[in-house]
Amino acid sequence: MFADLPPQMQERVVCSISAAAKFQVPANIVIAVAEKEAGKPGQWVRNSNGTYDVGAMQFNTDYLGDLARYGITAKDVAAAGCYAYDLAAWRLRQHIKNDKGDLWTRAANYHSRTERYNSIYRADLVVRASRWGKWLSARFVTYDVTKPGSVPSLREAAVTAPSTSAGPVQRPIQQASWNTGYVPRKITISAQQ
Description:
Blueprint: H1 7-23, H2 27-37, E1 44-46, E2 52-54, E3 59-60, H3 61-67, H4 74-78, H5 83-98, H6 103-108, H7 115-137, H8 154-160, E4 163-164, E5 167-168
Helix pairs in contact: 1-2, 1-5, 2-7
């Protein structure tokens, strides 16, 4: 399923899809944010305001200050692996659930709540998410979360649902429930435990 992706993008896409599933966030949005942020593990990018954007999902050090109360550090989000994607999907979920505006404005709050920065990020996010949505629909069972009672993508319906003379049978899905109290935690195991 991922053979058509360049090797350097495979971890980004696999981790994004996994994180999206864990935190019930649209996968195309998580992948689009990951692509837009375009960070790499261990990367620190200095901003003009003196802060840094850290790791694969480019978490700003100002935001990481808020996460310190959960024991989450810049080192955690700079590390290779899927943890930064989990944390980003958790953060996107908070924006989608709690912020005001349409889905795209809330998702673009990942970058900035300032209207002029949000609108630029939002416009690019919509384009990227649309492209990734098509890519995902061609490979996975997908649902349009913006439409209550949406049905599985045609790919899934054709594969798993019995056919009738009217075509594949499609079953509506339930809306996702949002548990906003959870914070993804980094687990470390030392040899002394």
